[in-house]
Amino acid sequence: MITTKRLQLVPIEIKYAKDLLALWSDYEVVKYTYNPWCKTIEDCKARIEHIQKFIDPLHMNNWVILHHNELIGVAGVPTVSDEKGEYGLYYQLCQNHWGKGFGFEVAKALVDELFENTNATVILADAVTVNPASMRILEKVGMKQTHLEKKSFQREELVGDLMHYQLTRAEWEESKLI
């Protein structure tokens, strides 16, 4: 478990499927992701089982986000390349919890957890450019834009530009000194 000032991140499990339905069935939450849109609890269970297949056995890397024991989102740091120490970063919050600083709080906690307790050398993320709130979160935790892929995000009728980000261990360590 990872605990922040206001949140708890606990390993994702099937028992959260019902609560995750509210998150993953909300088109506004999932529209800028590649995650499937879940319409039933069974869809959520299948999604959780899929996520669990890719959990790094060395450390838990997919979490549900709890605020006062209420599930308000999911987040994770999937392994991109264990050899290179590359990890990804993602987060999704229920709409009624947008704009409260939870996205930053979760992202910062996961970045710190990775660099303090793993072999991570770099954390990678991306955001669709029409989602400036997500871009601000990534930049606020210290991630730097690396490149823009024009029209590389596609989901149903949506087509958008994808901004790629990274934060190296050296950059993170330097930011801790300031």
Automatic annotation (TrEMBL):
It comes from the Bacteria. It holds the Pfam family Acetyltransf_3. InterPro entries: Acyl_CoA_acyltransferase, GNAT_dom, N-acetyltransferase. Residues 7-178 form the N-acetyltransferase domain. SUPFAM superfamilies: Acyl-CoA N-acyltransferases (Nat). GO terms for molecular function: acyltransferase activity, transferring groups other than amino-acyl groups. PANTHER family: GNAT FAMILY, PUTATIVE (AFU_ORTHOLOGUE AFUA_3G00765)-RELATED-RELATED, N-ACETYLTRANSFERASE DOMAIN-CONTAINING PROTEIN. This is N-acetyltransferase domain-containing protein. It comes from Cellulosilyticum lentocellum (strain ATCC 49066 / DSM 5427 / NCIMB 11756 / RHM5).
